[in-house]
Hints:
Blueprint: H1 8-17, E1 27-30, H2 35-44, E2 48-51, H3 56-68, E3 80-83, E4 86-88
Parallel strand pairs: 1-2
Antiparallel strand pairs: 2-4, 3-4
Amino acid sequence: YMMPKLTGLEVLQTLYQSSHLEPLPTIMITGMLQPSIREMAIQLGVFAILEKPYDLGELRALVAHIGTTDKSSEPEGLLTSFQKPASFR
């Protein structure tokens, strides 16, 4: 969420303002997973959220899942717990 010039949420907004990047699945890795930040990230379209410290195996599994998932076929707003505290759409 807190980076040198932009927050993570601002980066997501910038990414998704470009229509050609809209379907780009993103994984948000944060050390500040407050409910309000989580909700904003979900509203912006983040695919997954991992809270620091995170397990590298879990990140790898999420990346593999992204590679095999047709995001357009999933119901809007579906959140499934991958392993606490990660969740993905």
